[in-house]
Amino acid sequence: MTQQATPVEARSMGTHLDRADGREKVTGHARYAMEHGADDGVEAPLTAWLVQSTIARGRVVRVDPAAALAHPGVVSVLDHESAPRLADTEDRELAILQDDRVGLRGQIVAVVLAETPEAAREGARLVHVAYDEEPHRASLEGAETYAPESVNAGHETDWADGDVAAAFAGAAVVVDQRYSTPHEHNSPMEPHAATALWDGERLTLWDSTQAVHAVAKTFAPMLGLEAAQITVRAPYVGGGFGSKGLPHAPEMAAALAALSVPGRPVKLAVTRQQMFALTGYRTETVSHVRLAAEPDGRLLGIEQHAVSQTSAIKEFTEQTATAARMMYAAPARATTHRVAALDVAVPSWMRAPGEMPGMFAQEVAMDELAFACEVDPIELRVRNEPDADPETGNPWNNRRLVECLERGAERFGWAGRPSAPGTVQDGDWWVGTGVAAATYPTLWMPGNTARVESLGGGRYAVSIGAVDIGTGARTVLVQIAADALGVDPAAVDLHIGDTDQPAATVAGGSAGTGSWGTAIVQTVQQLRADHGEHPDAGVASTATAEAYPDMDRYALHSFGAVFAEVRIHRWTGELRAPRLLGVYSSGRVVNPMTARSQFYGGLVMGLSGALFEESVRDPRFGHVVTQDLATYHVASHADVHGIEVEWLADDTDTLATPFGGRGIGEIGIVGTAAAVANAAWHATGIRVRDLPVTADRFVR
Amino acid sequence: MKELTYVRADDAASAVATVSADPHARFLGGGTNLVDHLKLGVATPSTLVDVSRLPLDTVEVLEGDRGGLRIGANVRNSDLAAHPVVRSTFPALSRSLLAGASGQIRNQATTGGNLLQRTRCVYFQDVTTPCNKREPGSGCSALEGYGRYNAILGTSADCVATHPSDMAVGLAALDADVVVLGPDGERRVPLADLHRLPGHHPEDDTTLAHGELITAVELRGSELTRHSTYYKARDRASYAFALVSVAGALELDGDVVRDVRIAWGGVAHKPWRATVAEQALRGEVYSEDAVRAAAAEELRAAETGDDNAFKVAMVRNATALVMHQLASKQQHPQQGGTR
Lengths: 700, 339
Ligand SMILES: Cc1cc2nc3c(=O)[nH]c(=O)nc-3n(C[C@H](O)[C@H](O)[C@H](O)COP(=O)(O)OP(=O)(O)OC[C@H]3O[C@@H](n4cnc5c(N)ncnc54)[C@H](O)[C@@H]3O)c2cc1C
Ligand code: SF4
What we know:
The complex is a heterodimer of chains A (about 700) and B (about 350). By secondary structure, chain A is of the alpha+beta class. Helix content of chain A is about 25%, strand content about 25%. In chain A, the strands form seven sheets. Chain A has a seven-stranded mixed beta sheet, sandwiched between helices. In chain A, α8 packs parallel to α14 and α11 (about 475-485) packs parallel to α12 (about 510-530). Chain A starts with about 20 loop residues before the first helix and ends in a 16-residue tail after the last helix. The mean pLDDT of chain A is about 95. The model of chain B has no long low-confidence stretch (mean pLDDT about 95). Among the domains of chain B are: about 5-50, Uridine Diphospho-n-acetylenolpyruvylglucosamine Reductase, domain 2 (2-Layer Sandwich), CATH 3.30.43; about 225-330, Enolase-like, domain 1 (2-Layer Sandwich), CATH 3.30.390.50. In chain B, about 30% of the residues lie in helices and about 20% in strands. The N and C termini of chain B lie far apart (about 45 Å). In chain B, about 55% of the residues are buried. The interface of A and B includes residues 125, 620 and 628 of A. Flavin-adenine dinucleotide binds next to β2, α6, α7, α8 and β8 of chain B.
């Protein structure tokens, strides 16, 4: 029985350490999923290309491969009749080519294998598919909704407390509005891709994933294997934002295609356009928010009723209303989630699922309340600070929201801001400022195993099957290990990104560093307990972290405050955000450089969501028609100006992890869109409650 | 991507001969638009005749008191924008070029290719949806579909697409001529007549015959062209096509509008010369209200849907802004325009 980890003293942690893989990346030596060659065991690969359905619902009547097969270089065409059979087809997103049913437009209905990428692509164009089309539903508007059993991350669908009706009946001030966030796509820089190779009963998958072990575990029963028969390697991943947190259909397509040519590697790259149908997205959300308050802004009641959409072939419900359960004090509250099952692509995780859309609604509503009560928006939040977690009644581990707001106000220059909107003009621009609070739960995941081996001479090898998707995990885990070992970071060899290393959970939920780091600390302490301070070379310990933070006794969350300045062109309504400031409390910052990048990235993505991002699904067809990065806008460099990030001093939380840090990957996107929308209102007096906040709302 | 034959043209005449002889052959310029179309299956040519290396890559300054220009079809967008005479005598052209695409794309894109780039209508670019422009007779998905970028002027029941080029809007306001080489020799087309309205044949973007090669664009400089500029309203600050754009030129005589040019982008199947508005302003006393009224006059014919109704106010206001900038420079030469 191994001991739970105990807190570690910081030496390297908190200081700058260059990115361990920075040089490989900027010199092009880092190999991504499509780039493995003969020296990695990928010799003479075939290329697979996906053929997607052009109907949203119905049946495939016939797949005619003749023209494709006649094309030089095309080797074979797999369809629902010819593809290898899966042992388990319950997951209809992943169980592709197993039957003739079509559940979404863009579903994989055939895979073409060819000697070159060009031949594969042309082969795919030449495959003719005949369908028996059935009517489909692809619009949330007017769709029938239901209450799912639970929502993402296992949260309760509905949760209420106190007498909400009474709270609203007697309230002096009520905000009652509908807020919406659009359908959005994660769009990481590196599109999804996989290289698959079967060797007898063993599958090796070079994958672009946030979780190598989860891919193996998910695919094993479907392919009739044990997880140990699947090796997943992801040494470098070009971003994921949640879209690579769970395996998607293209990885299964690569595995099946390779199974049809045993011994021959198969490469499959998903195009940007295909990503819009096959690799997950954030669904549109609509929140009905009601706030009841005393004249001084003290909340009496909070309601958030969230509606979103899922796919009829697999359920996923965005947990939009969960932050409303814990954010502010109020004697009464009610939160619900309802979801509509549509004949569309399968939604999934996108950076801060739940918090991002939910806090947009809540934090704009709070801004409306502040104005209605004539209370400064920061003061309003201070007045509604809860002493303990309203949802569980548990004490906070480390709630420092008010400090974030106050520090941010000071740095941003909030004092003296006119409370009325539409009063500041600079040249051709209306100018406004806005604030919003941010929060993200500390999700700590059990079941991470690390192995620490003494290499002699004071050097150590640390292995854990974690993945660095560009966040800096490869660097900060070295720092955590070094401090746990009491050695210099240069004395630690870290091995991650491969199922050859011990089991680890996903790089997601802002839980990677915390959960993996805890396992590493615990294993180091195990090594010390087993073998002392100077273990011989070759001596190793392995340990699994099953527990660390006491989630039953504490409410574990991070907090932040986002400030935005927005300018709106008085002639054209165009918006620009010259200043964004985020101040965070997220426990110990292990590496200021990689942490700052995470916060920046979150803020930029929040800004992007505030002003630009929107996947337009055409309900007549059932697919997203803005399916490339020229029509699906993300923030460009010219949109990103003065972004500043700060974290509170002396923020160490050893209740959360033994190294004192909590997750930072997602909180930067939370609240940012609300701060921008609130600033846009302050600039113009026009309240936009539906993201994105675009020029057409302001042009008169 | 369909297999095709690639040939590099040795001279303009043989390029014209090759393409004219084969209805499925196409010219290739910088490839920044056409190669995308090859990958998407939007274009499936039999042969690509690469004209990007023909020696049509110089900007010639023509003799004359005001300085005219003959711009070779292969002059890259970046080089053209940076040319000193373009910057001094045709600022609307320089600014419209710089408002387009990205630095990398402008380095690659040619003058001829920019003029003939095709619409960014999302349905045109998606071969799984009906589109009259891509497949005549199949229907127009944009009419009742995603309409944020749809045209508001000169539309037809068959197509509501907009022409995406910024440069073409700048050139339209500057009264450019396009020099075209066909099998029967050279001809000149006023830029305003190069692109066409969709009517019943949205498959034809322009009035050029198949096989006609753009060899140059010609401009004549004047006091008016010197007082020209370009404004592009867009969703993000860079790397976005215009919601609407305005190229304008204004010459004041005291307070009176001696001459004026207005061209709009993002509103029609072609760069839209706002001749009604120009006519209303010419000879009148300049004022912001007069510009707004003139633009409104031009926009009386606008037809909009829910998604693009905002364009009417936006293009009217942007026109007022552009004229305001040009007028303030002439009325208060020290101060420059507004920001
Ligand atoms: C992401 C992205 C963003 C963009 N944003 C903008 C923008 O904001 N504003 C803007 O204006 N543009 C924008 N563009 C478009 C860009 O300006 C065009 O792609 C470019 O100008 C085309 O020039 P090219 O030389 O590459 O043409 P090509 O792609 O080579 O050719 C385009 C067409 O012109 C024909 N052609 C080429 N040369 C000749 C010739 N000499 N004679 C006759 N026919 C010819 C070709 O056959 C083809 O039909 C963007 C493009 C991309 C990819
Ligand atoms: S607007 Fe024109 S280009 Fe767009 S779908 Fe209709 S016909 Fe095609």
